[in-house]
Amino acid sequence: MTSGPGEDRDQHARELAAVVLAAGNGERMGPGPQKVLREVGGRAMLGHVLDAVAELAPRRTVVVTGHHRADVEEYLAARFADAAPAPETAVQEHQGGYGHALLTAVNRLPGFTGTILVSCGDAPLLTGDTLARLVAEHEKAGNAMTLLSGRLPDTTGYSLVLRSEVGEYEALLPPDRADRREPGDGPAGGRLREVGAGVYAFDAAALRAAFDDLLTSGRTAGEYLATVLDHFTAHDLRIGITVAEDPDDILGANDQVQLARVRAVLRDRINRWWLAAGVDIADPATAWIDVGARLAAGAVVLPNTRVLGASSVGCGAVIGPDTEVRDSAVGEGALVERSTVTASDIGADARVRAYSTVSRSGIGAGAEVTGSVLDQAVLGASAQVGPYAYVRPDTRLDEAAKVGTFVEIKNSTLGAGAKVPHLSYIGDADIGEGSNIGGLSGFANYDGRKKFRSVVGRNVRIGGQNGLIAPVTIGDGVYSGARALIAEDVPPGALVISEGSLKQRNIPGWVQKNRPGSASAIAAAMAQGETGELETADGVRQRVPRTTEPPEPPAANEPSTTDDERSTP
What we know:
Layout: H1 5-8, E1 16-22, E2 39-40, E3 43-44, H2 45-54, E4 60-65, H3 69-79, E5 88-91, H4 98-106, E6 115-120, H5 128-141, E7 145-152, E8 160-163, E9 169-173, E10 193-203, H6 204-217, H7 225-234, E11 239-243, H8 256-276, E12 280-281, E13 287-289, E14 294-295, E15 300-301, E16 305-308, E17 312-313, E18 318-319, E19 323-326, E20 329-330, E21 335-336, E22 340-342, E23 345-346, E24 351-352, E25 357-359, E26 362-363, E27 368-369, E28 373-375, E29 377-379, E30 384-385, E31 390-391, E32 395-397, E33 402-410, E34 413-414, E35 419-427, E36 429-431, E37 436-437, E38 442-444, E39 454-456, E40 461-462, E41 467-469, E42 472-474, E43 479-480, E44 485-486, E45 495-496, H9 510-514, H10 519-527, E46 533-535, E47 541-543, H11 563-566
Parallel strand pairs: 1-4, 1-6, 4-5, 7-11, 12-15, 13-16, 14-17, 15-18, 16-19, 17-20, 18-21, 19-22, 20-23, 21-24, 22-25, 23-26, 24-27, 25-28, 26-29, 27-30, 28-31, 29-32, 30-33, 31-33, 32-34, 33-35, 34-36, 36-39, 37-40, 38-41, 39-42, 41-44, 43-45
Antiparallel strand pairs: 2-3, 6-10, 7-10, 8-9, 46-47
Helix pairs in contact: 6-7
């Protein structure tokens, strides 16, 4: 097994403490989450930095917070609750610069005498290998400080590293200096410049002595790191430089442009890793795979596809094109195309075809969903849904059950092989295995106050345009004729039909008596010209105004507004 950078450190290496600076306001990033909490590759930038630091196994890790302190601490508590040791926090009460933030952290490490590794929280591309090499070279040389550098064509926002004639550290040129060009540069520059990454390894004793001296001398108390560096230089303490082998490692994100850049760099890194592992990524420029996702060799990712969160994709599965899979498991040989899948399990050889949305659901092996919506539903093996179906929460389809075109179903179960082929509503029902619900049928489950269940037995044949009025139970093997209205229980093996048209019966005043205070009761009272007050369902008395008198009927020879008048000739 390959060991991590921290495990490879020399057993005689000094103790290590890590400091991550996350107190800045990040105004250039614009509105939204605190800068270090912006996600890159499905993980906050601060999380990337802390993960890289953790590979070195520091004895203590201190995160300096300030602006959005509560948000950062909440993130740390949630993301690193099980870390050993968990990151600590130190609060920078006022924003006094890099040096002041570092002083805030050093004050949390009294008595520590080893190496202090310092990084900004907005450098998500840092790797454990790069940090380990920085610390190793620092300790081997016995430096007071060693800075991490890289060579970039665009140095905007970075401090330039100036070296002596023999190549040793001479100075850091602050980012706000205008004279950042060398003789011979063209209008667009283009020459690689060595810049500081904002990542340092310090000898703890030398750093603490520098701060003590600056504080007692009445200077700026080291609010700017340059003050600390000047102290080291004045006391002939050695400052070293470690150059990152991959300059992308040092890229930070202070604004949206830089954030987009580091996201693209990490996307490319992740995709190169998966390509090398045997995953077929058709268009790496449009495939976005989060760091927490897992793909098996032989999986296929088609263009414009996102595999996000803690998703997993099995061997032979095809994801895409134009697809998003988030926090979901896609089994071997499955297909998800032009669809969105969230917090769901897709079984082996299942098919989620174009324009489907699957959320918090389970789809069994070999099942198929086409152009439909599933929300908190479970499909058994070889079940079928769609096209254009809506499967609502708490619905279960057993093996080979079917919900077809323009069907809505909620809080219901379909037994093995049961079918609702088209144009129906099924609510609060249990339908037995092998049963079939004819088209244009509906389950009336709600009386305006309470919902009731319907039970349909095994191998029942419900005819077209049937209405089932819950609560009702239909026995096994029942047949029903077309347009049957079923409001009473039906014994097994019976044929249920509705003979002729049902005679209509009106019950005056039923709504006001049985649904007092409802919107319907108030509307009815107003239509009938009643006055006085009605009591609403929550006990509030509401006055009902008298309606205006109805208009006089038209004279015999006067035209009236009839259906004939509104129809086309």
